[in-house]
Amino acid sequence: MCDVNGIVLEMNKKSEIVFEEDGGKDLIGKNLLSCHPGPARAKLDALLINEKINIYTIEKKGKKKLIYQAPWYKDGIYAGFVELSLEIPFDIPHFFRE
Prior knowledge:
The chain is of the alpha+beta class. It contains 2 helices and 3 strands.
């Protein structure tokens, strides 16, 4: 979770472990933009400015993850971004429901 300027406000225990090599819990108070290279940094900067949702999947270290990045609001005022990272199976069923 970060504020509107990309400053990390909170991390759960899992994210502290995942980002341990980058500083783990010490990333709280740091700017997310400084942790992302070129195109990823530009994308994140645009998301922060435009308050857009970004959803994608990645494969890293033998695991597939769904990444969900979305703006969050406090008392109806844009307050920053939250990112959810969920490990998912490589083959996942998809259903159409009416």
